[in-house]
């Protein structure tokens, strides 16, 4: 095994074990001990994908802990306060969890675990959770049956202060993190008044159809079809396949313009034309044609005025007024974003830019450690320490066909 991969695996496993917790008989991983001492939805999906390479049983425990707090209506909360800490103690109107969700990576993570050990019993245990979660999104988050999934809070995107949400929040392109946080906390208070009832809350306070959320949903519906097929549930497989086609069609009809997919807001689907990394996430779900994918990569990803900087991929285009290389989700490079784009590029056989992203991701964590985010201009790490997302480079390396040579790393 390549020495680089060995070193990364060793450090990744060390962080995952250090960040492992056990409460009430459940085992889970926190993203960072000091900054994020709870369990998060898409974080745990990332953890499970990584853990499946080391020990599929640990990966299963991660997911089982996550779904143990699933709501009766099928929603899975984006946060579980297994043990209350000193940070992020927000009132979500429900004891022990938040009342909002996060990008639905659950089916994808479950399938990645299954691919390692082919444990059909695990699929059988997980399927009811998956069925009700994705049906919740198809119903409560799409009350008008237009086949686009809505979010009721920017935090549901996983990108809390992304400039994609400035307009719906009534904020200018340039503002402080404190101003953004106060506005999002005000939204939580508004959500409390409507008891986090998604259709009502969306209509009255915050109604965004986000491109990443919907693209991730499309890819997970595709995987859900595979899971249903594996369990012999042919009718379910056909149903989820149809839903996948409908959401993809709706994204093209209501989000696509001039070669790019844009998030929308409001009942009339006004496009939010802010250029962020979100324009690349349709690659992950194979929504684009080959020609569209190549144009997207050549015109935007490889454009040095937008995303192709020293340490790609910045979460916001360099030429956007909102770009801030140290602005949390307003510019810094995040390893999970790189992972999504990397996987998307491989879907279209675009191996050269995929390899560049993989190598710079490795360089970032080699140079700055397992930090939460990185300055795309100089590679300096910032945010949380011992942050688990850096371990996603393991999946990048293993997904890439060409062996990594130590001398060709940088």
From TrEMBL:
GO terms for biological process: oligosaccharide metabolic process; protein N-linked glycosylation. Residues 36-389 form the Mannosylglycerate hydrolase MGH1-like glycoside hydrolase domain. InterPro entries: 6-hairpin_glycosidase_sf (IPR008928), 6hp_glycosidase-like_sf (IPR012341), Glycoside_hydrolase_63 (IPR004888), MGH1-like_GH (IPR054491). Transmembrane segments: none annotated. SUPFAM superfamilies: Six-hairpin glycosidases (SSF48208). Keywords: Glycosidase, Hydrolase. GO terms for molecular function: Glc3Man9GlcNAc2 oligosaccharide glucosidase activity. It holds the Pfam family MGH1-like_GH. Belongs to the glycosyl hydrolase 63 family. This is Mannosylglycerate hydrolase MGH1-like glycoside hydrolase domain-containing protein.
């Amino acid at each position: 095994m390549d020495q680089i991969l060995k070193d990364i695996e060793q450090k990744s496993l060390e962080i995952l074990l250090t960040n492992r917790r056990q409460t009430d008989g459940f085992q889970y991983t926190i993203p960072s001990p000091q900054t994020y001492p709870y369990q998060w939805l898409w974080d745990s999906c990332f953890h499970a994908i990584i853990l499946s390479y080391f020990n599929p049983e640990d990966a299963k425990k991660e997911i089982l802990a996550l779904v143990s707090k699933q709501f009766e209506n099928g929603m899975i909360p984006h946060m579980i306060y297994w043990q209350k800490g000193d940070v992020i103690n927000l009132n979500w109107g429900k004891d022990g969890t938040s009342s909002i969700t996060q990008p639905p990576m659950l089916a994808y993570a479950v399938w990645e675990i299954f691919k390692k050990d082919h444990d059909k019993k695990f699929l059988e245990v997980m399927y009811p959770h998956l069925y009700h979660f994705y049906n919740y999104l198809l119903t409560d988050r799409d009350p008008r049956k237009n086949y686009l999934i809505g979010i009721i809070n920017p935090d549901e995107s996983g990108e809390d202060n992304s400039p994609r949400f400035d307009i719906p929040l009534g904020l200018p392109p340039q503002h402080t993190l404190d101003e953004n946080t106060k506005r999002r906390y005000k939204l939580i208070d508004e959500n409390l008044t409507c008891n986090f009832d998604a259709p009502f809350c969306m209509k009255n306070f915050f109604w965004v159809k986000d491109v990443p959320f919907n693209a991730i949903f499309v890819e997970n519906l595709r995987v859900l079809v595979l899971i249903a097929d594996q369990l012999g549930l042919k009718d379910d497989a056909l149903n989820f396949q149809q839903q996948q086609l409908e959401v993809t069609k709706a994204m093209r009809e209501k989000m696509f313009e001039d070669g790019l997919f844009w998030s929308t807001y409001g009942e009339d689907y006004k496009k939010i034309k802010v250029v962020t990394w979100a324009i690349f996430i349709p690659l992950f779900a194979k929504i684009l044609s080959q020609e569209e994918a190549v144009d997207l990569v050549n015109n935007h990803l490889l454009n040095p005025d937008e995303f192709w900087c020293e340490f790609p991929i910045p979460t916001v285009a360099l030429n956007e007024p909102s770009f801030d290389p140290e602005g949390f989700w307003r510019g810094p490079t995040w390893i999970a974003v790189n992972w999504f784009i990397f996987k998307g590029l491989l879907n279209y056989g675009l191996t050269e830019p995929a390899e560049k992203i993989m190598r710079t991701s490795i360089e970032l964590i080699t140079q700055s450690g397992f930090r939460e985010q990185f300055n795309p201009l100089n590679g300096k790490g910032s945010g949380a320490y011992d942050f688990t997302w850096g371990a996603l480079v393991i999946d990048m390396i293993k997904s890439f066909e060409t062996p990594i040579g130590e001398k060709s790393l940088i």
